[in-house]
Specification:
Largest interface: A-C, 67 and 62 residues
Number of strands of chain A: 2
Number of domains of chain C: 4
Strand content of chain A: under 5%
Chains: A mainly alpha (551), B mainly alpha (102), C mainly alpha (622)
Structural class of chain C: mainly alpha
Number of strands of chain C: 2
Order of helices and strands of chain C: HHEEHHHHHHHHHHHHHHHHHHHHHHHHH
Helix content of chain C: over 70%
Helix content of chain A: over 70%
Oligomer: heterotrimer
Radius of gyration of chain A: 23 Å
Largest sheet of chain A: 2 strands, antiparallel
Radius of gyration of chain C: 30 Å
Shape of chain C: globular
Number of helices of chain C: 27
Order of helices and strands of chain A: HHHEEHHHHHHHHHHHHHHHHHHHH
Structural class of chain A: mainly alpha
Chain lengths: 551, 102, 622
């Protein structure tokens, strides 16, 4: 089933290429059909395994030997976490196809080929449980993405596409080395040379490398995922790539490719390297906060609508990093919800930015109203404006949208680990208000001096765009007011992936981060807090405040 | 006839090689460059024959035949290139073909 | 009704959804029916609930309704649950009642606006969010309503978006309150972490067991941070005067029914946290006292009629905070109720005047227009309503409701031993009389009855709300003896620590009268004390007070400019320079190595020769 799902997307891409040679419309229809097939396969898989998913078990999928000599298998499997992300992939795939409906006129077939293969690569990343296969898909999603930016992008497309490729490729190589190190050390210790995820994970009990080595290998994984996420100092590829990509490319980049980074951290780094992650957590938390604030200030200063939205992604992904490295189930659930909600909200913001820029002919917010002959855009396109406002509000984490649930849980969990981090991160919510409101005002509510007697006639959302928006609004509100089904799908998996306190061996805590302790993983966050780090409560509130002993 | 001492023979081969090399470096005419390369090849061939004689093995002569074949192929290709070269640049000056500078 | 009281917030929200989806295609009449009707039905539900709840009055049992599980993660489960007890019942009734009258009034005020539907959609959402806030049984749901109120204030203040100043005021309102909200959110984290629940009742119970620790203080201070933001108290008060940019019904809604009273409600609702912390209580009282005084002084210098009302609201909310801080909990909520009536009345009558004067806000220009007869005539109801509302605001003793509630707060300050707070409250009481009647006399005195007559259509839509609220502004004070014990079922009572001598008893009644008398002397047409008036208007600090003690400039200098500067500083992302540097270094290598590629075949041959020679030499020698 799972292999078929990926195959459907791959085949859909090839067919779309061929169909596009006949007529561009056929390429779009073929893409939609293959996405529908994938959706059907997903739904059947989900329905058949709903009980085991609820318990956090794996659905075993396709497994076959690929290169048996070195223990490489083709192994697809899924649990609740994977299934949720694959669902997001399919949904955003549909949005991406619709967003390019009237935007991509040239080489439509090849465009859809690339789009579908990126989606297949992303789905492959979420479903692969062989490290070699994982790496294969990890690289496979880059190349079509590169083409999407380089061929159909905007003014600085060459620069942006090469930058994107170098960043992700270089960090991917670090991960390859880490995968090989994992393979080698595991093989040397157990005599079983394999890339199988489950074997590698199961043998963690008999540690096949020392703490120092583990830390370095962990860093390799972390760098690759942090670049993709992107975490603070590695973020600079993102604004360029998102700004220059065509709308569908931006949607897939922001909605899906960034999520592979978060997924990787949760799926590989936390369970493989519990001790190293706990030791590294203070740094990761600090990077997360830096990303939250830096991205927010950066977004506030932009004139280019797409670049502004891209910068907000840096800020949001900071919350994800905080949620992951707070190392407790509350925060991790928050990071997960935040990723899904961000996929929807930012994907839709790019959808809006793309359709808006297509109508007014510029991405510069202060020049947008020129196309409407100086009138604020709200007065000529209220439907587009309403949808834009709703998703901008989601982006600032307004309660009632999924983003709020994600950010609330992530920060709440982080508060249990490190109040300083949570409080500083909360400031990001104020900054988010500033950039969101500025964006709404600049894009929709601000007019300019009328320039020419007759402006271009601007049209509001058509039925197709309005339908896509309506579905996505329902999705983000549903995540905001009743996210429990989504939490139930992935929650048990997330709880299992958090390192247990026992494995984060005490006594090896100090060391790698000068001046910083480790974050203690914990499974019941009300019980574990406040015995965390030296930089915990006492450091913030002083010794004068007496705390009730762990209620 | 007294056998030629191997040292003397190698000295001759070395001299031939250096002369050929200097020819490659200083002549600008492509035909002369090719001829100089021939001289260098032959110097190498001479060295092989000497070595074969010294160790009493046929390998040196085998190598010389290889070199002959290589030299023949080189001349055949080289002259063809010279013709194309002249056709394109209207000269045989090697420095004219410097399009591959960085 | 016990299972149906969720309809009270649900109906306005449904009204919002319907208007948002179809408002563009509906006729003005349909929009009016839909927008006002949803609030009307909500009011009926609230009244029905109240009736049934009061039948079981003796039991005092709150109604709790859990609608659905919001989310549950290991260690924390949050549900969407509503709770109706005497506090939330009073609050909800006042909110929905005043909101209903404002909606009726808006149907007249906004008639003919090109975006009538959008206005009613957002007004409905505003009321729905406030009712959610009030009826929430879970702090996180309360927070949802809290943010929803902030959002709607943003949308409605900037309703007339074509004016850039309105958009700025709207953004300011949202961001400033969001600063407070963030403090509130951090308070939520602490509550969730230390009590393991966000249910208000459960959290209140378990915090009670932590008397000895500093935790309640910390939480209470953080909640207070949220409250001062929404309620426009020091130091987050600056958004309120600018919020006057919105249409007048919006101002009425923000000041009377929704939004600014949310902070008062939050503190009252979370009283379990505050009573454990004397420090936090003192802070609440101090903030209230300072704000009421500062705002009253500023109100004295305003020329814009709506800004005067805005500062008066700030000042009155200051009284409520003061009351909460000194332990006069029920009195504060009572003052909230009377304030809701008379402030809505004042805004609506001011709206009638403003509309008649073609959107003229300046009191001196309004007077000039009235005298010269260049404007629409002002309906007499506006005059009488403004007088009634003003009298209630100034707390004219015995006859107005404002006097009953405010005097309770002031005497609460004295009997609990907060002398300097009491003194500030008294000063504010005098100033209230002065500034209210300064405006009243300036606008109306001596203009004569001839200019008053009613023009325009749909008169009833104005007359009914104004008449009803005028009545309530007077009679609401007489139910004091019923409402205080009713609220006391939920709110704590504090025993007085000292008695009340006669002068303390009589002072809050006399001071407003003195203020009004002084206003007459200064601002009536036959004013005697013109010299004093001229001195006051030209006082060196008048500009400073006019601008609300220059908090805006301070924050602009301390926060906004540095933030914008930081934005400009990193606009092009300095971190990217690191990567650009790597690219430049690679380019440098490219240049150096590229230069050696001359394309000269003889040079290459020479280099090959030299290289070979070096390698052979090296191999032979070493």
């Amino acid at each position: 089933m799972l292999a078929l799902l990926i195959a459907a997307l791959l085949a859909g891409g090839l067919l779309a290429w061929m169909a596009g040679r006949v007529k561009p419309l056929y390429a779009r229809l073929v893409s939609l059909a293959s996405l529908a097939a994938a959706a059907a396969l997903w739904a059947v898989t989900f329905a058949l395994n709903i009980s085991s998913l609820g318990k956090g078990q794996f659905i075993s999928g396709f497994k076959a030997a690929w290169i048996p000599q070195i223990g490489v298998n083709i192994h697809f499997a899924a649990d609740g976490l994977s299934m949720a992300f694959v669902a997001l992939t399919i949904v955003l795939g549909v949005v991406a196809v619709f967003s390019s409906w009237s935007e991509i006129e040239e080489r439509t077939g090849f465009f859809h080929f690339n789009l579908m293969w990126v989606l297949a690569g992303v789905a492959g990343v979420f479903l692969s449980f062989d490290m070699f296969l994982f790496y294969f898909f990890w690289e496979m999603m880059l190349i079509p993405m590169y083409f999407l930016i380089a061929v159909w992008g905007h003014e600085k497309k060459t620069y942006a596409s090469i930058k994107f490729f170098i960043f992700t490729q270089a960090s991917g190589l670090l991960m390859l080395m880490s995968i090989l190190a994992l393979f080698y050390f595991h093989g040397r210790a157990t005599g079983n040379f394999t890339f199988d995820y489950f074997t590698l994970l199961a043998d963690k009990a008999k540690p096949y490398f020392g703490a120092g080595t583990a830390f370095i290998v962990m860093l390799g994984f972390f760098t690759a995922f942090a670049v993709k996420l992107p975490a603070f100092p590695f973020h600079s590829w993102l604004p360029d790539a998102h700004t220059e990509a065509p709308t569908a490319g931006s949607i897939v980049l922001a909605g899906l490719l960034l999520k592979t980074g978060g997924y990787g951290l949760i799926r590989f780094v936390l369970p493989f390297f519990p001790d190293a992650s706990a030791r590294f957590a203070p740094v990761a938390l600090a990077l997360g906060v830096a990303g939250v604030l830096y991205g927010a200030v950066l977004a506030f200063a932009q004139q280019d609508l797409k670049r502004l939205i891209a910068d907000t992604s840096i800020s949001h992904m900071g919350f994800v990093l905080i949620g992951i490295y707070a190392l407790n189930p509350v925060a991790l659930n928050g990071a997960f919800i935040e990723m899904i909600a961000h996929g929807i909200s930012t994907g839709m913001l790019f959808f809006i930015a793309g359709t808006l820029a297509g109508r007014v002919g510029t991405r510069d917010m202060s020049r947008m109203s020129k196309a409407a002959n100086g009138l604020p855009l709200w007065s000529v396109m209220p439907r587009l404006g309403s949808v834009g406002i709703i998703f901008a509000l989601a982006s600032m984490g307004l309660p009632g949208t999924g983003n709020f649930v994600g950010e609330f849980l992530a920060l709440l969990g982080a508060f249990a680990s490190s109040p300083v981090i949570a409080i500083t991160g909360s400031l990001g919510l104020i900054a988010a208000t500033a950039y969101s409101l500025r964006m709404i005002r600049k894009a929709f509510f601000e007019g300019s001096k009328p320039t020419e007697p007759a402006g271009v006639r601007i049209t509001d959302f058509n039925a197709r765009e309005a339908a896509v928006s309506a579905v996505m609004i329902l999705a983000i509100v549903w995540l905001g007011v009743y996210p429990q089904p989504v939490i139930n799908t992935a929650g048990p998996v997330l709880a299992r992936l958090i390192p247990t306190s026992a494995s984060a061996a005490p006594g090896r805590q100090a060391g790698y981060i000068p001046g910083g302790g480790a974050v203690q993983p914990c499974h019941n966050f009300t019980k574990c807090s406040l015995k965390t780090t030296p930089s915990g409560f006492a450091a913030v509130f002083g010794k004068g405040t007496k705390w009730a002993p762990g209620n | 006839m007294a056998p030629v001492s191997i040292d003397n023979g190698l000295m001759v081969a070395w001299a031939l090689f250096v002369l050929g090399f200097i020819g490659v470096l200083v002549r600008r005419d492509l035909v002369f460059v090719l001829m100089s390369i021939e001289v260098m090849l032959n110097a190498a061939g001479l060295a092989f024959i000497l070595a074969g004689a010294k160790w009493g093995k046929p390998d040196g002569q085998v190598m010389f035949i290889f070199i002959l074949a290589t030299a023949a192929a080189e001349v055949a290709l080289g002259l063809g290139l010279v013709l194309r070269f002249h056709h394109k640049f209207k000269t045989l000056d090697t420095d004219a073909a410097s399009k591959m500078r960085g | 009704m016990e299972n149906l009281f969720f309809l009270i917030p649900a109906l306005p929200i449904l009204g919002f959804i319907a208007l948002a989806l179809f408002g563009r295609r509906m006729s003005a009449g349909a929009i009016r029916t839909m927008g006002v009707g949803s609030i009307g039905f909500s009011l009926l539900c609230a009244l029905a609930s109240a009736g049934q709840f009061l039948n079981a009055f003796q039991a005092g049992r709150p109604w709790v309704q859990t609608l659905w599980q919001w989310f549950a993660v290991p260690g924390l489960a949050v549900s969407v649950s509503l709770k109706l007890d005497s506090l939330s019942l009073i609050m909800a009734l006042v909110v929905v009642f005043v909101s209903f009258l404002i909606h009726v009034y808006s149907a007249w005020y906004m008639d003919g606006d090109e975006e009538y539907g959008r206005f009613f959609a957002w007004m409905n959402l505003f009321t729905g969010a406030m009712l959610t806030l009030v009826l929430a049984g879970d702090i996180l749901l309360l927070y949802l309503g809290w943010e929803g109120v902030g959002l709607c204030s943003y949308l409605l203040i900037g309703f007339w978006y074509k004016e850039p100043a309105n958009a700025r005021a709207a953004i300011k309102a949202f961001i400033v309150t969001r600063v407070g909200d963030t403090a509130f959110l951090i308070g939520l984290f602490l509550i969730a972490l230390k009590t393991g629940t966000l249910d208000i009742a459960q959290a209140s119970t378990s915090i009670g067991a932590m008397k000895a620790s500093g935790l309640p203080t910390l939480i209470a201070m953080l909640l207070l941070g949220g409250a001062v933001g929404k309620s426009a108290q020091l130091p987050l008060q600056t958004w309120l005067p600018d919020a006057m940019a919105g249409p007048t019904p919006v101002s009425a809604l923000i000041h009377a029914a929704t939004m600014v009273t949310a902070g008062v409600y939050l503190i009252a609702r979370m009283n379990a946290f505050f009573v454990l912390s004397p420090v936090a209580m003192e802070a609440v009282a101090a903030i209230g006292a300072l704000t009421l005084f500062l705002a009253a002084v500023s109100a004295l210098f305003q020329t814009d009629i709506k800004r005067m009302l805005a500062y008066s609201t700030m000042s009155q909310i200051g009284y409520m905070f003061l009351g909460l801080g000194v332990g006069a909990w029920s009195a504060s909520l009572f003052h909230f109720m009377t304030h809701a009536f008379f402030k809505a009345l004042l805004f609506m009558s001011a709206g009638v005047i403003i509309k008649a004067m073609h959107e003229e806000h300046d009191i001196f220009k309004i007077r000039k227009k009235l005298l010269s007869g260049t404007a629409f005539p002002v309906p007499p109801i506006a005059f009488w309503s403004f007088l009634t509302g003003g009298a209630a605001l100034a707390a004219l003793p015995f006859i107005t409701s404002g006097a009953y509630s405010k005097d309770m707060i002031i005497s609460g300050a004295w009997t609990s031993g907060h002398v300097w707070v009491w003194a500030l409250a008294l000063a504010g009481s005098f100033l209230t009389g002065l500034y209210t009647f300064r405006v009243f006399f300036t606008v109306f005195a001596g203009t004569g009855q001839s200019v008053y007559s009613f023009g325009g259509k749909r008169n009833l839509l104005v007359l009914i709300p104004l008449a009803v609220l005028s009545v309530f502004s007077v009679v609401a004070g007489y139910i004091k003896s019923n409402i205080i014990p009713f609220l006391g079922m939920v709110l704590p009572a504090v025993a007085p620590v000292k008695g009340e001598p006669f002068i303390v008893y009589i002072a809050p009644m006399l001071l407003p009268l003195i203020g009004i008398a002084l206003a007459w002397l200064l601002y009536s047409p036959r004013a005697k004390a013109t010299a004093l008036k001229a001195w006051a208007e030209a006082a060196p600090l008048s500009g400073f007070f006019l601008r609300g003690w220059d908090f805006d400039r301070l924050y602009d200098f301390l926060i906004i400019r540095p933030y914008k500067f930081a934005g400009r500083l990193i606009q092009t992302d300095p971190v990217d320079l690191i990567y650009s540097l790597i690219a430049v270094i690679s380019g440098l290598f490219h240049f150096v190595l590229g230069t050696s590629q001359t394309g000269k075949i003889r040079l290459y041959a020479a280099l090959i020769g030299i290289g070979t020679a070096i390698i052979i030499t090296w191999a032979v020698l070493f």
